[in-house]
Each structure stands twice: as C-alpha cells, then as structure tokens.
Design goal:
The chain has 16 helices and 15 strands. Its cofactor is pyridoxal 5'-phosphate.
Amino acid sequence: MTFFSKLGENIILPQDVLIQSKETAGVSGAINATIGIATKNKKALFLPSIDKVIKEINNSEYLPYSPTPGLPEMRNLWKEKIISDNPKINKEHLSLPMVTTGITQGIDIVANLFSSEGDALLLPSLFWQNYAQIYSIKLGNKVYTYNQFNENNTYYLENFKEVLYSIKESKISLILNFPNNPTGYTPSTEELDELTIIIDRFAKENPEKQVIIICDDAYFGLFFEENHKTPSLSSIYKLETNSNCLIVKLDGITKEYYGWGLRIGFITYYTGNDNLREHLLEKTQGYLRSTTSSPCNLSQQIAIRLLKDKDTYIEKKENDKIIHERYIILKKSLDDYKLSDSVTVLPFNSGYFFTIKMPSKINAHDFRLKFLHDYKYGVYSMDNEHIRIAFSCLDKELIPDLVKNFKLCLNEF
C-alpha cells in the first residue's frame, strides 16, 4: 500500500549540489566551492544598501498581501530594467513582468502552463538538473540533449541544429541558459545570432510545431569577455515574428543583486500579439494564485528600494568587479599550472562556475571525495565525468591553491 500519487512516487530529492555542499560543511576547515552563491571571507557577498533599505520599510507597507502578480511598482521597475538591458527590442511587445518566488518557481510555472506529457524539452548535455525534475518527472516530457561543445571545445551549433531537427514531438520547449550553469559559458554575439537563425528556420520549415523559447537569465550581467556579452533576448526577440514561437524571459534579484534569500524572480513574455500577451498574463496569474497565491511583500519592498537607490548600482558594480577579478585569476592559474594537460577544462567566460571533464580512468565522484577529505576543497561532481567549481565562492587568494591542489590530487590517481 502507498499513499503517494504517481507524481509522489516518482519525485526525488536529488543527491546533488545541496547534499554535496552539506557534506563539505561537515569537513572541518574545508573550502566550499560547490554552491551557486558569491561569498567573501566565507560570508555572502552582499549589497550594503540592503541593510539600509530594510531599516526604511514600515510594517504597514510589508505586512499586507502583495497582489498575485506582484507589486505594480516592482513590475514596472523591472520592465524598465529589461528594456534598458535590451535596447534593440520593441518595448511595446514586452509584457509587464510577473513576480515569482525565485526563478525556480518561474521555470515550474512556464513548464506547467505550456508543457505536458508527450511534449519535448531540448537542453545542452550539461544542464541544471532541476530542469529534468520539473519537465521530465513532473510533466512527462521527453528530454533531448545536444553536445554543448565539439571535439575542438567550441560551441557546437551543428549538433544543436541536428538534435532540434530530429525531435518528432509537436511541442518543443527550448531553454537558453546563458551564462550557463554548470559550464559558465555564454555564446559569442555571432554564435547567438546563428543559434537564432537555426531556430527561426526550424520554426518556418515546421509551421505545425510549437516552439517555446525560454531564456533562463539567472546569472545575467556577469559577462567577462567583450564579445560574449549579448543578452539572449537581444538576439532571439526576432523569433516572435513566427506565430509558432513563444518567447519567455526568466530572471531575478537572486544573482543580479546579490539577494539569494529574497527569492524574487520574474516571468516576462515578449510578443507582438496584444491579445496573446494579455492572455498569457491572465493564465500566469491564475497559476500563481493556485500555488503561492502572492509573492513576498517584504522582499519586493526591499527590491523596489534597491532598484531606485543610486548607491545600489555602484555597490553592484563593485561586487561584479570582485567576481570578474576572480575569473581573471582563475584563467591565469589554469594556464600557470597547465591543468588542461591533465583534464578538459570546458570553455567558460561568465557567471559563477567552470566545469572540468575528467579523464575516463578517473571517476568524478571518487575524485571529489578525495579532494574534499585530503585537500579540504569541496567541489560538485555532477556525474561520473564532470566536476563543477564555483569560483564565485573563492576569495582570490584561494584560487591558485585550488588549481594547484586539484592537479596534485589528479596525480595521485
């Protein structure tokens, strides 16, 4: 006898980064480079303005319920930000963002509104595992993956196209997550344009298929190389001219404003069809009403003040500069210690992470445990082959030692 529904039977608590991070915390003196957060001296890297604005908020402002789609001022401020970040788009085609409890809820809402059993999800071969939990286990989508990088370690657009055209299902959700978790890769402007062309041709050649293009912009703004800074929406917005394409942008305060625990995310639609845009907002609001009912008022009050405070932008740039500096030191350390002679360091140029593909003779999980217990560094083994390291968690003076010790640990295998 079981009390569980079919979904209850199938749902799992993945033995993923949260479990491995907890394991790292249990090792005395270990440095934690597992989880998607930015730290300094082992504490969250924060915006000082958050402390200031919290003191300004009156309980009469934050105790009442928020409207289901979020506070109007919050939604308007975020829309202005998206337009500023993507000057090429037609601002009239952009919906008002709707507030979610983090980007994860946004993904879940989009999945449930537009996908069901018998539909398809297209992802790169290395992806955030919660996508599969939501689309495959909860909704019964078939997951297709393309190789993110080819044998020359460059972005594999040809394989993306090959897999896209191989999909037989009539509805396809396609997640573009740049900067990517776990690889830390953002396509060049030319690569992103070519990706858009491939999707556009596919949509035109297959008018009977529906394509939902989802931009998961969780790490938006942390772009470190000059030709790899084009926002996804600034390229794929062109696809809305296809009646069988729907564009959705998911983003949030979480990483962009160093406010992980505020749990403020957004769903925004881009379409030139006014009736469709209103219908999308209505349906999304209906789904929100049936789940969280309304987002956290206090977090929104904090976020509103942050977005309106000029000091916030100065502080944010300072924090972004810290992450960028770590990236530069990491790149130099990888060269200095010639880590690529022993493993495959996958291309990275943005975000929080980089990913290493281990040699076939070394199991990534075994390596992680040895690296943790013998060298006191916690890293995330995603599968038997790949290890993800969050350099966002590493103070700059720790980075060369991590790379050096990683190579020493490799030699022991």
